[in-house]
UniProtKB/TrEMBL annotation:
Identification of the protein by name: CxC2-like cysteine cluster KDZ transposase-associated domain-containing protein
Pfam families: CxC2, KDZ
Annotated source species: Suillus placidus
Annotated CxC2-like cysteine cluster KDZ transposase-associated domain residues: 83-201
Amino acid sequence: TQNSFIADYLAYRDLYLDIILESKQFVHAGMCETCQGAEATFSCVTCIGDHGWCRPCMIKSHQSLPFHKIQLWIGKCFKDVTLSDQGFIWYLGHGGEPCPWYDTSLLCDGDMEALPHDTTPVTIVHSSGVFIHNGAWCHCQDSVPKQHLQLLRAGLFPASSTRPKTAFTFEVLDHFLIDSLECKTSARSFFEKLTRLTNNAFPDTVPDRYRELMRVSRLWRDLKNRKWFGFGHDMESGPGPGDLALFCPSCPQPGINMPLLWEQKWLVMKRLVVDGNFTAQHMNMREPELDIFLSDGSGYMVTDSEYQAHLASATESKEASDRSTCSNHRAVNAANANRSNLRATGVGATACARHGCFVPHSIVDFQKGERQSRHMNIDYSICNAITQAANSIDNSLIIYDVGCQWNLHFGERVDNCPGLTLPDNTEIVAAVGKFHLSAHKLACFARYSLNFTLGAAQVDGEILETLWAPFNKISPTACSMSQAHCQEILDDHMRNSNWKKLVGIVKTLLRKHKRAYKGIDDTKVPFEEPTRSLDVNKVSLWESDQKRATEQRGEHLDIYNLKIDRAPTMAEIRLKLTETKYADTGKVGSVSWLIEGINLEDAQDALRVDIRQLPRDVSATQKAVVAEKRQKLAAWISKYHERTDAVTQGIKVNSGTVPLDDIRFCTADVVELGPEAINLQFASEEIGEEVAAEVMDALALGLGALAAEELQLRQGQSNDCLERLRQALGHKAIIYRQHFRSADSTWAGTRSKQEALRCQIKIDKYVRGYQRARDAMQMLGVDKETLTNVYQEIQPSQLTVNQEVTEENRHGQGSDRLAWF
């Protein structure tokens, strides 16, 4: 373990420290190890091993090692010195050797005036620090006269093409690109690291080349991409839309990874997921007309000029201002939210749904959220993605969190907008990701669920949510860049994301292949067993319905919706009882009395919860608040009891205390008794008492009608509690998925825990309310079959979070068992 290795280190810590200190002494004090004729006063920190040289030999041995750090022994200690201070000259044009034109014996008298005798100081940034070297240019008659090209041939990227005074090694530029991709390091942080590597004690003495690094890294990224994608050998035609981008190696692409003959359309359909990221914002530029694009539209972002022309030609329709007809979803209802300081409020992307690879030339900027004018942003992304990804495949599955709204008029928008084009014979099936589907209305479930979409396979449709996580780390840096630079940064990170998918695709496919076969084994038997026990004609009818629903979709998919009658609420039962009572007797007092009693039970329960949540060292203020609540509750109960005789027709009703709360659904029971524990004297409490037979007959005779009314109201109370319990459990699942997983700070995590705790308190409240109603129904003599099949007892194990929300792509969904309610 890690601790065992650290424990082993402790035994050698002092020895390690001694060896490190010994390495700082000058072990080669004496003669130069190379010439053996001069005193050795120089040592190299970077070279492997202990060395000692005189000055000429040190320079000669480092002629091809210009970025080593040299130290001078001054008698008592080492002093840091630079190679350039000791006379090191970087010769350009001849592989590090001096230019022959410097040899005066090779020159005529007339050429002497043209021979330069001076050198130019050049600041060179390397991965180990910032160095200043004296550069000697090549002046051969047939050499390249431009200095920046001589630097480039020497492996140094010039910061200027006119009078270069700064250059970057290819190595440091590669390091910066990898650091920015893997560690999300900004240019400022990266150069600060180099500054400290150069001089940690006095970093202000190091030349600041941050601006140069920002500029040169863009050029280096552009050149590397062009070389990578083969445009270094084809200078006549530059890269077109998406030509500097990688796509998914596994998604079906005719001519690349598919056989020549293929017929199963559902198997080779394009599966695309669409989503927006509102963290990837971009601020307005002061002078956008001065911005220069290096790879506009060649990567994953769309071509800006064409996209702006599309936005200009697309007109706002009435649909743009309409609110969503489905759910209160941010992507739709935030469409008209404008922010004047932002050029873009986010980005919209399209990726392959099964492997999470961004589609080239399909990423768009948002101006007003995911604008559901839908003549705008997302339509443009989807059309480009369908056209870019395997143009010859007609079928496309589009998974979008508001797909039910987006799909309504998509065809009309494509026909009416010149900037939107699709290949001929394109067929689109819209679906909603499993996590977002839980926020839609019930009618959307069957029509847009991936579980009922042929060819969707086992995908959750939420893979873009995971891909946005690394982009959220670079967004604060990219938002203030120029538009062109920001586009290049986003392209680079998307290219890097797809590259990681590409190099890991073999392991990914093997893992999914094994999981698919296991899924077949796990679901085959549970499917075949009930099929054999069912009527053959009914199975045949279901199969034909399923085939028609798969082919025609739309309302035909409603066959998958549960056909159930909604249980009546307590308000509906109250209205029915009140109207019936008034029609028969002209009085409505008993119903309102029962309703008031049920409300009092809820108030007593709420007060007991407040008392349980008090700390052990209760303050005087907290005691006063509880006392006031008890006084108000006692007054309410007293008024309620004043009406009891009139309602119960003078029959004496027992008093006492309520039963203790179920400890499974509360932290502890209240010890001190007060108004929150007073019995409210319902008919259900009396009929269930063990009294003499004649008293029972009298009670039953006098309270029979009242008990029948209470039984119906208790059923309504149970129905209400179960419905609220289902909603609270769904809310808790959303909290775990949205807040706990995305919490990026202690504050956010604490807030999420508090929200989950409040939700759990509500869940326990609804369970206790249901238990009170069920106990009352049992005392009122409801038949055993109703208690066993309809109003069952709730167990704590049934109050689990919905895994369809928290683990929407898990294995074994087909064998899930929901709680009875």
